[in-house]
Known about the structure:
Keywords: Arginine metabolism, Hydrolase. It comes from Massilia solisilvae. Homodimer. Belongs to the succinylarginine dihydrolase family. By secondary structure, this protein is of the alpha/beta class. Helix 4 crosses helix 5 (about 95-100) and helix 15 (about 395-410) runs antiparallel to helix 16 (about 420-440). The protein has helices at about 25-30, 40-55, 70-75, 85-95, 95-100, 140-155, 220-225, 240-245, 275-285, 305-310, 330-335, 335-345, 360-365, 380-385, 395-410, 420-440, and strands at about 5-10, 60-65, 115, 125-130, 160-165, 180-185, 190-195, 235-240, 255-260, 260-265, 290-295, 315-320, 325-330, 350-360, 375-380. The longest helix has 18 residues, at about 420-440. About 35% of the residues lie in helices and about 15% in strands. It has one domain (about 5-70, about 105-440): 5-stranded Propeller (L-arginine/glycine Amidinotransferase, Chain A). It binds N~2~-(3-carboxypropanoyl)-L-arginine. N~2~-(3-carboxypropanoyl)-L-arginine binds near residues 19, 20, 111, 178 and 372.
Amino acid sequence: MLGAREFNFDGLVGPSHNYAGLSFGNVASFNNVRSASNPRQAALQGLAKMRALAQRGFAQALLPPQARPNFRMLRAIGFSGTDADVVAQAWRDAPVILACAYSAAPMWTANAATVSPSADTLDGRVHFTSANLNNKLHRSEEHRQATRTLRAIFADQERFVVHDALPPTPAFGDEGAANHTRLAREHGSAGVEFFVYGRVEFDPSAPFPKKYPARQTLEASQAIARLHGLNPAQVVFAQQNPAVIDQGVFHNDVIAVGNGNVLFYHEQAFADEQETLAALRVAMENVDAGLTAIRVDSADVPVADAVASYLFNSQLLSKPDGKMALVVPHECHENPAVARYLGQLTASGGPVDELVEFDLRQSMRNGGGPACLRLRVVLTDEEARAMHQGVIMTEALYARLVPWVEKHYRDRIEPKDLADPQLAIECMAALEDLETILGLPGLYDLS
Length: 447
Ligand SMILES: N=C(N)NCCC[C@H](NC(=O)CCC(=O)O)C(=O)O
């Protein structure tokens, strides 16, 4: 398995990107409710990040947006007639549900699926499980298209398996890779899969947050480890600290990130820090690796600053020289405590020696930082050749996607614009063109 690389599949922001305040527990989404969005800028910001990382030699690909509005859902709850009728009725009777149907949340592909590389799985295939995202209405149907998309890209069943989402019930609340970290000596060697959950459905004595929902359950994480055929000696389950969920840490990737043998985390991330680290160290020994833990103290970066800046929603990327770059949003630079901390981190002589900063403000205002925007897929060279090549970020693809965005995307969406039947037509037209650009005819079920 040597020669494996980590591909980051970023979500291409869809043409209906808007701020509807749909994610209770996600502070940014709530704070920006009903403000005007700029879908064109959002998509271009995302593309600029993908391009810059591809130019640096990192393996970069994309996952396409989903069809919006979700007419299937709107019709399933009783809106009927032509598409324009459906939009008009929904706008009149249930504008929040119309906003759910229009959500561009699939851009946060960290929530698309959980992925286990072939080095970790019993059958030697790369396993994906689409996340059911059943905690939020606007995300609860994403798994249908996510499964379809992943099966189109990873179609070779000898090498890949894409599992359906877990049963969509609270016991199996699953948010995908946002609560899953893989630690390993190097990408290609056997690794430890680290699942962080927010609550336990069937243990009333387990702690849980009081104010905001815990989206990921232990039962869901265990189901995925089973489905993927992971070796129990290489799996760690740990509970997220419920107190930080109540401070806006709605996924573990808002308070911790791992790569290679490094875990970069806030001291308040886990319900039991020492037990979690001890379990990780034992599991890492089972794959002949040692854990390097970089702990950020509350005295240096309070949880509120971590949430506001998205310090931990960064991408930790391995460079050819063995060091790591931390890909952070612009907000980290603007937060004095975080900026000071990052200066120390990169000067410390530790594994992280470089910061790469991006302006992702459009996504950030909905609670999505660099790490939310990407799904990590470790692939051997052979597996990389076997996947669909049209989604790999190249200069040529970038050069086709920028004019595509400029042609199809609005530069402003306010809440009232969701009532405009023309917006639905524009979204469809964009996706039809995208199928061609990506070489994925039939990607969408537009019937
Ligand atoms: N941390 C990770 N991996 N992902 C971030 C997801 C942000 C997303 N925001 C939203 O869905 C806001 C949509 C709105 O309010 O319009 C969410 O809360 O699920």
